[in-house]
Amino acid sequence: MPxxxxxxxxxxxxxxxxxxxxxxxxxxxxxxxxxxAGWMDWxxxxxxxxxxxxxxxxxxxxxxxxxxxxxxxxxxxxALLAYLRNAPDAPRTLGHTPLGSLSVFAxxxxxxVQAGAGLFASDDIASEGPLARLVSNASVEQASxxxxxxxxxxxxxxxxxxxxxLFYRIFRRESLVRPMVVGDRLxxxxxxxxxxxxxxxxxxxxxxxxxxxVAAIAVxxxxxxxNWPVF
Length: 231
Known about the structure:
Strand order of the largest sheet: 1-2
Helix content: 55-70%
Radius of gyration: 20 Å
Mean pLDDT: 90
Strand content: under 5%
Largest sheet: 2 strands, antiparallel
CATH topology: Fumarate Reductase Cytochrome B subunit
Distance between the termini: 58 Å
Structural class: mainly alpha
CATH superfamily: Transmembrane di-heme cytochromes, Chain C
Low-confidence stretches: 191-197
């Protein structure tokens, strides 16, 4: 373990990204609990919120700070293999690792699929997605099947995510949770000073105002989708 005196704090995860992360966690838990309890009105609300959060993250991946941008964690297959082998030429980054980037893209994809399918799904009893009446019965059945099947995929990815957190904590003595709470990572002073390619992420008032604008756009898009027959 490095001497704490030789470490410095570097802002990696901006506040909007951290809020996105924990709000998505809340939405996934809320969606799972409410559907099992039969509270379908709340299940829909959590689903709409999750879809808005995914849209926010996609937009933030293009206009957000350094480590939030997709460009900072899109790696070639060779880089992923080098990272898995812990090769000397493996990518070193304060943001998402090559393996972590796969987790991010996979979770965004499956949550988007889940929320999207839910818009067209029906339980054939009392609840149906707001867009179900716009498509054929066959399409509703397919969306309903996908919505139920994809729940298992999400649970599997969440389990892998939690196992990765435990692996890093136990075997690499590194917490992945704390930086996502406080925003900072501890890095060696010398490395932080010498590595000009890994400066701190911007996380100021302008960044947060920009995030509010992006969030408003995401919410507006979801509102338009959910109320599509009205528009």
